[in-house]
Design a protein that fits this description.
- This protein is mostly helical and 83 residues long.
- Helix 2 packs antiparallel against helix 3.
Amino acid sequence: MTVLEKVLYKNKSSFSAIVPAVAAAQVLPLDLSVTNLSVTALVAEDVALLATYIQEQLQAKHAIYGVGGYLEERNLYKRSSGF
């Protein structure tokens, strides 16, 4: 076990779920990366269109939650100096 894993395990009672437990089928992996041309075009034009795109993806798969990739490069982040 790594040092980080040990610290996390030791403090696991301090953590709680961000979202309620749901079936895996209700979670949709979303590609929000720069390689997804649909998202790239949407973000460049209008963030509201990106929200619509995500909602359409969730509805098409009957998913409740969408989860983007960890550490993926996203054009969305380039819109703000905060990232």
